[in-house]
Design brief:
By secondary structure, the chain is α/β, with parallel strands linked by helices. Helices cover 48% and strands 14% of the residues.
């Protein structure tokens, strides 16, 4: 008699990049991973939109396991879209018809860019109103999040005064910490926590990998990438230059960390370290889920586009890419990396 074998769960850690509305791609990736009973998530490191996704997933998990996490993410992104119903940065019906979500040259995006160059958020928003705070307050059970077992959570923000990264661990995560992680200085006033001002965590860690190395047992880190690493040609227009500068800036910390990981992997693979020195080194397995070719076509302005059609399109793209990644990469988990970080980041 042949017995059906239950596949062994593979524990992974997730590293979720920031990128505004483009974080809906990550929503789709998470939705598909949570659907797979072979996957168990140990730790999540998130920045900006990645931090929101991580926190909403964790508190949803408390209330209903994987299904609860999926439901919470769905409700959050839909609520986010409703809250941005009157945003000037939106696609017109013709753009939607042709699937054009690059809004850099739309009147709303151009107007917003001009205003942002002339006035700071302290001029435009002296009372520090942030609609995202209300959305988070209605979406997030902070007490449940802080007691979420067995997930580990790491949220990154950048200290304005020191320029250093601060990683908020699960018991420290609050709505203020999430807003700090997503605080673009051209758009929002700095978020103060314990008397210290913070800006977007993407400047110093997008996302931070080191907490997943030091605080988690699983050696598999899955980076959900929404900021393109490579782009052909030289940008010429002001919008193109700004977009590419934004991508380079928000990928720089990740590149640095992965170069360090590659260096350690070289030491482990070589014969230069022996005994206790080798025992202290941890070989990581690095994986990545993304869609560079598609995300390159989305300009920076579309990161502020919370139109539900756009968010759902990105979610479906994320689900598709995660499904393909599971088909090709699941067998690598626990054994080796599925990307060559030396080739991609050195």
């Amino acid at each position: 008699m042949v017995q059906n074998s239950v596949p062994r769960k593979r524990r992974i850690n997730l590293a979720l990049q920031g990128g505004g509305a483009h974080g809906a791609f990550t929503w789709g990736v998470l939705d598909r991973l949570l659907e797979d009973e072979r996957i168990a998530i140990e730790g999540i490191s998130g920045t900006s939109a990645g931090a929101m996704n991580a926190a909403i997933l964790a508190q949803g998990f408390v209330h209903g396991g994987n299904a609860g996490a999926r439901h919470a993410l769905d409700a959050f992104w839909r609520r986010l879209s409703e809250g941005a119903a009157f945003s000037p940065i939106r696609a017109n019906p013709l753009d939607k018809w042709f699937g054009n979500w690059n809004l850099d040259k739309t009147p709303g995006a151009i107007w917003w860019d001009m205003v942002g160059r002339m006035f700071s958020p302290y001029d435009l928003n002296p009372f520090h109103f942030d609609p995202l705070r209300e959305i988070l307050a209605s979406s997030l059970d902070v007490a449940a999040l802080q007691h979420c077992e067995p997930l580990k959570l790491f949220i990154s923000a950048t200290n304005v005064q020191t320029g250093k990264i601060r990683v908020f661990e699960k018991h420290e995560v609050t709505i203020d910490a999430l807003l700090a992680s997503a605080c673009l200085p051209q758009v929002f006033q700095a978020v103060e926590i314990d008397g210290e001002p913070y800006w977007d965590g993407g400047f110093m860690g997008n996302p931070a990998i080191f907490p997943l190395i030091y605080e988690c047992d699983s050696r598999d880190v899955v980076i959900v990438q929404i900021n393109p690493l490579f782009r052909d040609g030289t940008p010429h227009s002001t919008a193109e230059i700004a977009d590419r500068l934004n991508e380079i800036t928000f990928n720089s910390a990740l590149r640095g960390e992965l170069r360090a990981i590659a260096f350690v992997m070289n030491l482990i693979d070589s014969d230069h370290v022996h005994g206790k020195g080798l025992d202290r080194l941890k070989k990581m397995h690095i994986h990545m889920i993304g869609d560079e070719s598609h995300m390159r076509n989305l300009g920076a302005a579309s990161k502020f586009n919370a139109d539900l059609d756009f968010l759902l399109a990105l979610k479906e793209l994320g689900r598709t890419r995660a499904a393909a990644w599971l088909d090709t990469t699941f067998g690598f988990l626990g054994h080796r990396s599925s990307i060559d970080i030396r080739e991609m980041f050195l």
